[in-house]
Write a structure and sequence with these properties.
The protein is an alpha+beta fold. The chain is 25% helix and 24% strand. It is elongated.
Length: 252
């Protein structure tokens, strides 16, 4: 008598189905892992951007709060504050220039005598956003220029900030800067703060300066990162109403 044995195993169709299911699961796992990696990188980029913009804003605030006022200054390139408006929003390339004390933006930068540090004396600083200049090898980003008239090259007949002062890269992530000024403290009963987008008072300082920075987006196609800060200038009152020394009649 013949006994029939039933053989066990996978059919070709079952094998193909198993391979297909494994391929789908592998593909899904890859996409999930890739999403986690991209999110991690985006988090790192955001953290780096926020740390950098926080540093930049602290430098701007420190520089404006250490603004220096001198009633004896008369030259046009030594105004209390020079504000140039250029564009709106993420396309804004405003620039600020003022006289200050301290290490903000200049650190241990040497004056032209090669010995004295600019931070040790009253000096001017200009901050602006550059799109990059191949002719001068100027990189793109937030730039600063600093100089002191006490130690500039007096042999030159004309002093040109654009040509004679080397720019310092503050942050390559900043793509735009928008500013506005508040001339004086608002009235207590005022319903709205009246900010202005121009400053024409020579050799004087506003009460507050509002600075808005636009940083490169984390992902291409996203909106830029926007950070704003309103900065009060402690010596604004003295620049608007300088006192007079009765013994000499000179403003101080």
């Amino acid at each position: 008598m013949r006994v029939c044995r039933k053989e066990s195993g996978f059919t070709l169709l079952e094998l193909m189905m198993a391979i297909m299911i494994m391929s789908i699961m592998t593909l899904l796992s890859f996409f999930a892992f890739d999403a986690v990696i991209q999110s991690w990188h985006a988090g790192i980029e955001m953290s780096d951007s926020m740390q950098q913009v926080d540093y930049v804003m602290n430098e701007i605030e420190s520089g404006l709060r250490s603004a220096y006022f001198s009633a004896t200054v008369k030259k046009d390139d030594e105004k209390g504050l020079a504000f140039v408006k250029d564009g709106e929003g993420a396309e804004a390339h405003d620039s600020l220039e003022w006289m200050k004390l301290g290490r903000a933006f200049v650190g241990k930068l040497k004056a032209q005598d090669g010995k004295t540090e600019i931070a040790e004396m009253p000096h001017r600083v200009r901050i602006y956003v550059s799109e990059g200049d191949r002719n001068s090898d100027e990189p793109a980003g937030l730039m600063a220029k600093a100089w002191s008239n006490d130690f500039r090259d007096t042999d030159k007949e004309e002093f040109d900030v654009e040509k004679d002062v080397k720019p310092i890269l503050v942050s390559p992530r900043v793509t735009a800067m928008e500013c506005k000024v508040l001339k004086e403290p608002p009235d207590k009963d005022a319903k709205e703060t009246k900010w202005e987008e121009e400053w024409t008072s020579s050799n004087a300082l506003p009460y507050k300066v509002s600075v808005t920075l636009y940083l490169q987006p984390i992902k291409e196609g996203d909106d830029p990162i926007i950070v704003a800060r309103d900065i009060e200038i402690p010596v604004w009152k003295y620049s608007q109403n300088p006192s007079t020394d009765k013994s000499t009649g000179n403003k101080t």
